Amino acid sequence: MIVTSRWARTALSHRICTGIPRRRLAKLIAELAQPWLDQQQSRLRERRGGERRRAAGAGPNHDLPFTDRVIVTLVILRFQLPHGALALFYQVDRATITRAVGEIRPLLAARGFAVPGKPELRLKTLADVFAYAAAEGVTLRIDGTEVQVRRPKANRPGRRAFVSGKKKQNTIKPTVISDHRGRLLWCGAIRPGRMHDVTALRTEGIEDLLRQYPNVKAQVDSGYQGLARDFPDQVTAPPKKPKKDATDAERAAWDQARHEQSSQRICVEHSIAEPKQWRPLQRYIGRREHFADTVTAIAGLVSDRCAMR
Question: Which of 89, 109, 129 is the last residue of a domain?
């Protein structure tokens, strides 16, 4: 049976394939339409060296309409399918699918992250997150996660940069921030997996933001002990393990304090688990230069659903 574009669009637009309901898919397509058109006009203007010389609508049509470009990008983000497979569904060349993903993925990554109860507001930077937390009195939950990536080829940089304790895996580490209900607010500070959690966040400028917003509080795990030491009134980390000669009472008090802090911080683990339902964040096999846009695009789509809770 020959699969036509209409049949492919009907099947692939299902939420099982795209990861989002069709009603939200329609809103997403409408949201991305103007930025994509501006992007295309800018590219064509640069290639022509000036304004267009023919009337609007002249020239060949796109092999893959804009709606289908968004759908195939979502399907690839969801399942990491080969581009050639989707090209077969739409009866186009594989390069057409690759070009479509290259156009839509940055637009998805640039959307930012949804805020509960404020559909007009989206957080795009770490500074936006701190400003939002200061205005709304939100206690942030911060944690890092690792995504396994392909090992670089021989004689390439990073081939021997294994992550300790990860069975000699090459990983990349994003940092995730959520609120007290596990709603994803931000995903960024994407650094090599071998970099320490707190170092990755410090390179993003979190120390300056903590000084700028002294009322913002954060719950972190033991990987951020140094941040809790430098900002004890704002950052709460698990208590340090007692020494070997500690009494039973001291060990019991430490264990109780550790459990209490963990129960307050565990919601960020749930916000990490939701984006990892998307295949590229389980094991990423694409090009490393596209990893940041892939992570940010997926996290932004997940935040849309989280904001509705």
Answer: 109
